[in-house]
Amino acid sequence: MSNASTSQKIVSVSAKQTQALAGQLAKKILTSQTRAGALALALKGDLGSGKTTFVQGLAKGLGVKGRITSPTFVLMKRFKNFYHFDCYRLQRPEEILQLGWQEIIANPQNIIAIEWPERIKKFLPKETIYLNFKFMDKNQREIKIGKTAIFMVK
């Protein structure tokens, strides 16, 4: 596999397709090479652009049982080695550190999905993979996945 950084743009026509795409990505993550630290996915996009829907499919693909909802009011939800952060309500980037952030990102077993990552940009791992979500219409979302050399999906 090439080490070249590339990006991929996908148009999803339904929530079900967005979740299936995330499930494919989860399978690639589970079979990817060993990492030095946690695998961080930064999900950027406006409200309603499909970020939480994507995380639901990702969690299911990682084998997480149970209902996945956005942790807007609690900031973080943990499911074994899968962490889902919603940084929308953070007042200052440093607040993320109070949630054990440094320990979480240091563990190569961890997979982290971060909604509103721009609020903690200075604390994101260098190898963070960015996914940009764009609302197109009632059903369609454009998802641009950055740095997909190891995660190309169909």
UniProtKB/TrEMBL annotation:
One of its GO terms (cellular component) is cytoplasm. Keywords: ATP-binding, Cytoplasm, Magnesium, Metal-binding, Nucleotide-binding, Transferase, tRNA processing. It comes from the Bacteria. InterPro entries: P-loop_NTPase, T6A_TsaE. GO terms for molecular function: ATP binding; metal ion binding; transferase activity. One of its GO terms (biological process) is tRNA threonylcarbamoyladenosine modification. It is found in: Cytoplasm. This is tRNA threonylcarbamoyladenosine biosynthesis protein TsaE. It comes from bacterium (Candidatus Gribaldobacteria) CG10_big_fil_rev_8_21_14_0_10_41_12.
